[in-house]
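Notes continue from the previous slide.

Worked example: a multi-chain complex. Inputs as given:
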Amino acid sequence: MAKITKQSDNFAKWYTDVILEADLAEYGPVKGTMVIKPYGYSLWENVKDTLNSMIKESGHENAYFPLFIPKSFLEKEAKHVEGFAKECAVVTHSKLISEDGVLKVDPSSKLEEEIIVRPTSETIIWHMFKKWVTSYRDLPIKINQWANVVRWEMRTRLFLRTSEFLWQEGHTAHATKEEAMAETLMIVDMYKCLFEDHLAIPTMIGRKSNMERFAGADETYSIETMMRDKKALQAGTSHYLGTNFGTAFDVKFQSKENKEQPVFATSWGVSTRMIGALIMVHGDDKGLKIPPRIAPHQVVIIPINPKNEEKEKFDNFVDTIYNKLKNDSIRCSIDNSNNSPGFKFNNWELKGAPLRIDIGLKEFQNNKVTVCRRDTGEKEEISPGQLSQLSSTLEDIQKGMYSSASTFLEENTFELNDYSEFKKLLSKENCFIKTYWDGSDISELKIKQETKATIRCILEDVNDSNLKCIFSGEPAKHLVVFAKAY
RNA sequence: CGGGAUAUAGCGUAGUCCGGUUAGCGCACCUCGUUUGGGACGAGGGGGUCGCAGGUUCAAAUCCUGCUAUCCCGACCA
């Protein structure tokens, strides 16, 4: 049977093994594409549903904008062009001709204007916002869309970087800078809550440096997370776009005072990449470990009755247990597959189900069930009457997963301000390093070239002449966190 | 976009150097039986345009040419 590579042997291989073996996803026929299988998709759906209600509760409305974007739209915002030009799928023709069963592009169907498959939707959305905004009464507009986008990446990995991925992209338009900035920050908090409370993933949050900022943003805030191999993964971003897109698409509004004013923008998103984070933050050598709140199966029941003794009564007993859990709103399923118990135990550990309930003849006769925790491996016999405590066990697992991930992040985050120590530490192991930086591109670039570590985010600004940049020794402007990143 | 490797059943592979039976094996699958508390076992069975297109030859998975795709490593990126 399939065994997965140990994390310590080859973390990258472990990651791929887990995804394929746990049946989350598999490779699509076109390079960089991925089929998200039912188990992986239901995981995504649970996250999506949670986030979707947060988005709606915070006053946003869902809408849908087209996949196809005229090439000319992308040209309108200079930095945006620069950022995305190198990774766009382009539609140039609309017809194929069949020659002896071989399909060829019909040259006569060449498009007047080439069409871009959206790498993100700012341009098409701001094109529409121009039509929608004339007065201060039209603002703010707070739109979100769940969509797929395409970025033609050189190097791809399941969930982390695929040519096509699923995400949510929020786009808002505001009358003032303050309001847009407040929106940007509110979203950061929303993502923080999603990651910490639901995915049990601790975060490190801050602004991006010039070099790492989103193409077309004035400020990018990012949600940084630490994987088990101690590399950083940017798991979500929220951008303050200033008036860049408003200006590029000529969107203006008339104020109460009848003055023409520019429109301020934000955009923000999290993608299926977050599933990658989930895998790499919690997984172990047995496989996935999914936090109860988003687990497709919170409890899996494994009946063990090889000889079908007292079949009817036994099955009724199992059903009773199942129904009790259902009534407690626990996502629960019974594994009646033809596999041996041993296989099922391993398989559900691989798939990361938080709790397992074994019911054999032994339990049946004693009116008990055996509960086994994925996180600790602990087994406990309880009576059916005690099943109601499982909801709190699940919460306990959820909290435990968050706190152990938190401890891991803390234990592997160091504060230092000596460059030779910095280099020594990073050459030895991956980690997060908090340190001071002078804010210059040159220092950042040099550090990246020498250590491969990048500024993940700016934690805070500093104004103290005693604090010096770790690289240049010049007065420091920011406290930042460095790490090697995915 | 550079460097490397690979392409044989659903998956993993042997065979390729040195052309020659009906392309072999493991896993998975199907049937039957025995099993089942930490990845069960036996017997039987089905499944292959050997990546694609040409060429050499009496004969090509094997040699030659071209193409395509994927994987790994770098540069770039959510």
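Summary box: The CA atoms of residues 252 and 375 of chain A lie 54 Å apart. The longest strand of chain A covers residues 164-174.
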